[in-house]
Amino acid sequence: MARINLLPWREARREELKRAFLSILGLVAAAAVILVMLGDRFVNSQIDGQRARNNYISSNISELDKQVEEIKDLQRKRNQLIERMRVIQELQGNRPIIVRVLDQLVRTVPDGVFYTNVSARGVDLRVNGVAESNNRVSSLMRRLDASDWLKDPNLDAVRAAPTYGDQANTFDLSVKVDLPAKDNESGD
């Protein structure tokens, strides 16, 4: 005999498949939510890590900026000190020159000529003085021109000076300092 099932097995099967489908759908949805949450946490942790690195870099940049400012300040002070040292060395180097120029001024003075004022500005010397006669002034000019350290004497004014005597004249002249080459200085 043949067995015939008259129970509504198709509906039961359909209900069973529907429940299995819904349970699998629920599991997939739960897994998707969990994956989304894990992905969100992972991305947030990556973002937090990058922010921490950015903050670290920013703090180091600010420290380096402070150090750069200190270095610039130190370089500025160094340049000022170097400039001061250069000025001092230049003054130290000019000491012998000043002595030699004054020595040349003394050596070139002929008898009957007296200096009343000598002033210097750079390589230009201004000399004021009194001479017994005009011939003495011209002798002074020739001697200044013949000097190794002085050049281009220029007589600015000659005036009669009755307070110094009958024939006395006051004079104003300018002369330039001729600095010899360094090789000549060492040989003197």
TrEMBL record:
One Pfam match: PilN
The keyword Membrane is assigned to this record: yes
Keywords: Coiled coil, Membrane, Transmembrane, Transmembrane helix
Record's protein name: Tfp pilus assembly protein PilN
InterPro entries from the UniProt entry: Extracell_DNA_Util/SecSys_Comp, PilN
Coiled coil: 57-91
A GO BP annotation: type IV pilus-dependent motility
Record carries keyword DNA-binding: no
Membrane spanning residue stretches: 20-38
Top-level taxon in the UniProt lineage: Bacteria
Species this chain originates from: Congregibacter litoralis KT71
